[in-house]
Amino acid sequence: MERPAWAPRSIDISVPSVSRIYDYYLGGSHNFEVDRDAARKAMEFLPGLPKIMQANRAFMRRAVRFAADRGITQYLDVGSGIPTFGNVHELAQSAVPGAHVLYVDNDPVAVAHSQAVLAGNDIADVVAADLRKPQEILSSPQRERLIDLNRPVALLLVAILHFVEDADDPYGAVAELSEALAPGSLLILTHASYEGIPVPAERAEGAVDVYKDIRNPLIMRSRDEIARFFEGYDMVEPGLVPMPHWRPESAPEDEDPFAFSGFAGVGRTA
Ligand SMILES: C[S@@+](CC[C@H](N)C(=O)[O-])C[C@H]1O[C@@H](n2cnc3c(N)ncnc32)[C@H](O)[C@@H]1O
């Protein structure tokens, strides 16, 4: 298989990756046959997976606009993924000219493509780091240059925490990042769950197994378990809800039933 220019030498292009599978669901072009095969296999169990991803992106866009409307000028997006239509820096910087945006991802394709997209943008950057090591994010030169921790930050953990296993202490990682944030900061989060999926959990498990096979397990958590990530935050109305129910701009009745899988919420530090 030929290696395209956007694929760093360090990656094994015969192994599917979470970020490239997601890129495929969103209609992007930064994915390989192995990623498309894995995505199609998961879709045999959950045909609505692209709808779930689109609902996730739509929530993220509404939440960034919400943060911008409340005067937040700094965005720390951990697990930002391969840039696609409606990126956080485009949304934030068009709503708040001069908004600073820092992307973080541990996937080399996501990092390389973000670097390419951000070339020439002095107020947005990307760090190759891992959510499981919050200090690497907080002490990075890019964080020091772009994100002033004495002022409110919107911390985005959108569709990432379900890739962090309990053994890797996702609650500890979120707490460590949250403790570094100034009062008035926001936590913007989505998370996969068996709750709300319009097929029996046993069937959805087939899709979960695809991620297990690529050694990047998808951890389905209950609503209560997801709510615990917001410890120390006050929930912004309407709380932790299925994605289309979070401050919709049009009637959620129009949505595909799959869009109601998983949960989204925004919390604010006092
Ligand atoms: C499903 S994508 C979500 C992208 C974007 N946040 C969105 O919602 O559109 C998940 C991203 O999280 C990244 N990721 C997974 N585990 C990570 C970790 N421990 N540290 C940093 N990034 C991680 C993956 O590489 C991938 O790009």
From TrEMBL:
It comes from the Bacteria. InterPro entries: SAM-dependent_MTases_sf, SAM_dep_MeTrfase_SAV2177_type. This is SAM-dependent methyltransferase. It comes from Streptomyces alanosinicus.
